[in-house]
Amino acid sequence: MNTISRSMLGVAAAAAIATLATSGVGAQSGADVQKAVDAAYAKFRGLQEGKNADYIPALAKVDPNLFGIAVVTADGKVYTAGDVKTEVSIQSISKVFTMAQVIQEQGLESIEGRIGVDATGARFNSIIAIEGVRTVVGTGAPEMNPLVNPGAISATSMVTGTTADQVWQKIIGFHNDAAGRNLSVLQDVYKSESDTNQRNQAIGALMLAYGYIKANWQQAVDLYTRQCSIGVNARDLAVMASTLAFAGKNPVTGKQVLDGSKVPGVLAVMATAGLYDDSGKWLYHTGLPAKSGVGGGIIAVSPGRFGIAVVSPPLDDAGNSVRAQRAIAEISNALGGNPYGRR
Ligand code: DON
User: End-to-end distance of the chain based on CA atoms, in angstroms?
Assistant: First the structure.
């Protein structure tokens, strides 16, 4: 604000406007953000729809009443309600950050060229989808994406490193930077998923056979399983979402995690494929690039405004947390978060 308008408004009014502006959510104040978060928490706390994922046995044991909401704004402030400390496994939300890491290292064209950036219209672990889009790399454009299991396992295989441990340190390091703290693997989930992931092993072998994975599909499946078992709470996820909301810079730590020029590509894939079969419906109602995980988390991004995350384990038939979808939509609508609705 220039000096002329400052003197016209008077010091108190100018200070009030400065406070409003620093909340980073358009004309909303920090109090407005907290009010929206509290209201959504109160509204959906009692919602008893959906069921924990159980095809990974450890996920069935997570408390279905766990419910936490967090929103992070441009100034790095974190607004919360409910339980934002208890960790769940990140599951498919990790796919976003491993995709982002490959894009950061190898460019936007690397993911588009090897895996594709098109929705499959099939479930996240569909093998029919692999057959439907099967293209020997180099002979045509693959029509897969890195947010369904075949594309995600392939993206994990693209992270460079001479040993599995070197690759893992890069994957967990990128997640840590986006979350702003050191995360660790939930060993019970990792073991449970490793014991029961024969379907993902079949997908990994097929992706090698069809040229999406170049070598060692077993290592790719194992590292993918490990990344899905990273423990996160609602606060961590919201900080990760906010790193994408603010051009790749974590607003809490100030670290530039991903080049700003690469963020729109990441958000585009989230918008088209982040909530699986329900991605279109979700975008229709919220306009927000988002990503769900079968652990019960969802992250969503209102570019330039806020990152938001909710953790609540019961899922709907498409595999997306019921309370998380409802709470995020409610809060975003209250804050004018839909980028398509901006004037
Ligand atoms: O590969 C799997 O089945 C899980 N590790 C991740 C699936 C997932 O989170 C799908 N999400 N909605």
Answer: 21
Quote the ligand 1 centre to 333 CA distance (angstroms): 28
- 190 by Cβ neighbours in 10 Å (0-12 / 13-18 / 19+) ranks as buried
311 in Cβ contact with 88 (< 8 Å): yes
Check residues 168 and 135 and name the one with the higher pLDDT. 168
Burial class from Cβ neighbours inside 10 Å (0-12, 13-18, 19+) for residue 170 reads middle
- Residue 227 Cα to ligand 1 middle (Å): 11
Residue closest by Cα to atom 7 of ligand 1: 92
pLDDT digits (tens, 9 = 90+) for 95-138: 999 999 999 999 999 999 999 999 988 889 988 888 877 655 55
Instruction: Report the nearest atom of ligand 1 relative to the CA of 315.
Output: 12
Q: Are 29 and 335 in contact (CB under 8 A)?
A: no
pTM over 0.90: yes
For residues 27 and 10, give the distance between their C-alpha atoms in angstroms, rounded to a whole number. Answer: 19
Ligand 1 probe mutation, 62, 91, 192, 321, most atoms within 8 A of CB: 91
How remote is the CA of residue 5 from the centroid of ligand 1, in Å? 53
Q: Would you state the structure tokens that stand for residue 70, as one six-digit string?
A: 């967090």
